Automatic annotation (TrEMBL), chain A:
Organism: Roseovarius spongiae
Keywords: Cell inner membrane, Cell membrane, Membrane, Transmembrane, Transmembrane helix, Transport
UniProt family annotation: Belongs to the binding-protein-dependent transport system permease family.
Name of the molecule in the record: ABC transporter permease
One of the protein's GO biological processes: transmembrane transport
Membrane topology designation: Multi-pass membrane protein
Transmembrane domains' residue ranges: 7-28, 63-82, 94-120, 126-150, 170-193, 199-218, 225-248
Source organism, top-level taxon: Bacteria
Automatic annotation (TrEMBL), chain B:
UniProt protein name: ABC transporter permease
SUPFAM superfamilies assigned: MetI-like
Xref: InterPro entries: MetI-like (IPR000515), MetI-like_sf (IPR035906)
Topology relative to the membrane: Multi-pass membrane protein
Biological source species: Roseovarius spongiae
Top-level taxon of origin: Bacteria
Transmembrane segments: 14-34, 70-91, 103-126, 146-172, 208-230, 250-273
Subcellular location: Cell membrane
GO annotations of cellular component type: plasma membrane
């Protein structure tokens, strides 16, 4: 059994990591054409992300969109998750369900909906369009993490605070916020990473005016092999790993993912 | 965060969020529905109305075959990714908390990686000069290197790769909450580890397996780039066709009709999940 288990784990790790190893190796290729194993060693394709104006502009677009949409998403989710938990409002619970729905459906449906909305009101191609679209599409993430955090607040502490004469705002700030904040951060981080990597909504809302990295990469893929993409993939993977390590550091990752504590 | 304002104050706190969700989630859906039934004007544009023309266009063998292909492909992917991910998830929950967290971080990082980048890395892997084909030559299974993409196999391989991390995370809650006493009891009673895996672990987590499978199915229905980059046009799924109609043919009514079909397929499948229940939380 131990042999079988080791063999299986090894195969699984090779399967999962294999493509990543290949793409990492290729990203250090010194030549412009695709070669694996790589010929020579160079950091030039990493420098290219920051030196080539068009790639750098896309990177900045993606970062700004991800930061703004993740913040907006948390701001929209916070009152909904709070009211559903604190007062058990039926209306808040309904809003919660509506907020989770966009994330479950195939993203192309939401993308088309946003495209129709923006063209029908005549506001096209602005960065704010994709920021709002991502905030709504990813709303499920802060909604779920924040309510997980609120569930771990001890309600007797709130009552104690109120008995001592603390106002609703003071109770919120001193009792609820410190416990819920790491989970709100986790929701923000999840939304940030997924916005950074999102393709179809960015394409359909602002694809022809504000090019995000995934959109630019896909456009580049159509014209054959571009070595910069390999280095971007490695950078993105590192960004993802950093963000999720931060979540694991500041809140309980297994718990957020549904394990028992 | 109004504490003392009574019900009115509590509802007022929700106004900004309601407006955002209403305008940017409900309205787009209504627009898709209205557009899918719209009529063509003389200028070739479309206007509000009621016409089934776009759904009639879908009801031809070409598009029905596309829908069946999409559903079949996604069902196969759900099955394969669960087969690959289940034993791993089971072993993962037996690791110590530190190793578990490290694996979860990596799996989340890979899962969040843009579909564009996954498609790109598989394009490299399956190309004539990059990777798998060279290995086959090296071990003597092939005489000279060849390109493995575009092909149906390439689409399948990359989509399974995309789905495996999701499968792990979907199965994770149920398996990690499973009462460990159950497997211990079966072991004490003399069952081999493999036997207790098949007779205890799998039956106990069956609802979660079913609901994860269905979620993976819906998730891969949404894949857009892999079929385009690694497949030929005959491997395009409904999602790709919707994008194609909306962005490159500017045919919003037909794109909307296809989106409604995709919505019906996903919604009925999600409805099936909620009927089965299952151990999904997030």
């Amino acid at each position: 059994m131990t042999l079988l288990r080791r063999l299986y784990l090894a195969l699984f790790a090779i399967y999962l990591l294999g493509p990543i190893v290949v793409i990492t190796a290729v990203s250090f290729n010194a030549k412009r054409f695709l070669a694996f194993p790589p010929r020579g060693f160079s950091f030039r394709w990493y420098a290219e992300i920051f030196v080539a104006n068009d790639w750098f502009a896309s990177l900045m677009n993606s970062l700004i969109i991800a930061l703004c949409s993740a913040s907006l998403s948390v701001l929209i989710a916070m009152p909904v998750a709070y009211s559903a938990w604190r007062f058990g409002l039926r209306y808040a619970k309904a809003l919660f369900a509506f907020g989770v729905a966009p994330f479950i459906l195939p993203p192309v449906i939401m993308a088309l909906g946003f495209l129709l909305l923006y063209t029908s009101v005549g506001i096209n191609g602005l960065m704010i369009n994709v920021i709002i679209a991502h905030a709504i599409f990813l709303l499920a993430l802060p909604l779920v993490t924040i309510s997980l955090g609120l569930e771990s607040v001890d309600r007797s502490l709130i009552e104690a605070g109120q008995t001592m004469g603390a106002s609703g705002w003071v109770v919120f700030r001193t009792v609820i916020l410190p416990i819920a904040a790491p989970f709100a951060f986790a929701g923000f981080a999840f939304a940030f990473v997924l916005s950074l990597n999102e393709y179809i909504i960015a394409l359909m809302t602002v694809g022809f005016t504000v090019e995000t990295l995934p959109v630019k990469i896909f456009n580049a893929l159509r014209y054959g092999y571009t070595p910069v993409i390999a280095s971007i993939a490695v950078v993105f993977l590192l960004v993802n790993i950093t963000v999720f390590s931060l979540i694991a550091r500041f809140s309980n990752l297994p718990r957020i993912l549904g394990a028992q504590d | 965060m109004n504490g003392q304002g009574g019900t009115l104050g509590r509802v007022l706190d929700l106004v900004p969020s309601s407006v955002m969700i209403g305008v940017f989630f409900v309205v787009p859906f209504v627009l898709i529905l209205l557009t899918s039934f719209s009529v063509e004007t003389e200028t070739g544009d479309y206007a509000l109305g009621f016409s089934l023309a776009h759904f009639e266009r879908f009801a031809t063998w070409f598009y029905i075959e596309r829908a069946l292909f999409s559903a079949g492909l996604c069902a196969l992917i759900a099955l394969l990714s669960l087969l690959i991910a289940f034993p791993f998830t089971y072993l993962l929950t037996r690791f110590g908390p530190r190793t578990q967290t490290l694996w979860l971080i990596y799996i989340l990082a890979q899962l969040s990686l843009s579909e564009v980048l996954i498609a790109f890395s598989w394009q490299i892997l399956l190309s004539r000069t990059g990777g798998v084909a060279n290995i086959l030559v090296w071990v003597g299974l092939a005489e000279k290197s060849f390109a493995m993409a575009p092909s149906a196999g390439a689409v399948l391989a990359a989509l399974v790769y995309l789905a495996v991390p999701f499968s792990v995370l979907l199965l994770y809650p149920a398996i990690s909450r499973m009462d460990k006493a159950l497997t211990e009891a079966s072991r004490t009673l003399g069952a081999s580890p493999l036997r207790s895996f098949f007779t205890v672990v799998i039956p106990v987590t069956r609802p979660a397996i079913i609901s994860s499978g269905v979620t993976i199915f819906v998730l891969t229905l949404g894949a857009i780039i892999v079929p385009q980059v690694l497949g030929k046009p005959e491997h395009w799924t409904l999602s790709v066709l919707i994008t194609d109609q909306a962005i490159f043919n500017f045919n919003m009514p037909f794109a909307s009709a296809l989106a409604v079909v995709l919505l019906i397929i996903s919604a009925s499948v999600i409805f099936a999940v909620s009927k089965f229940g299952g151990g999904r939380r997030t």
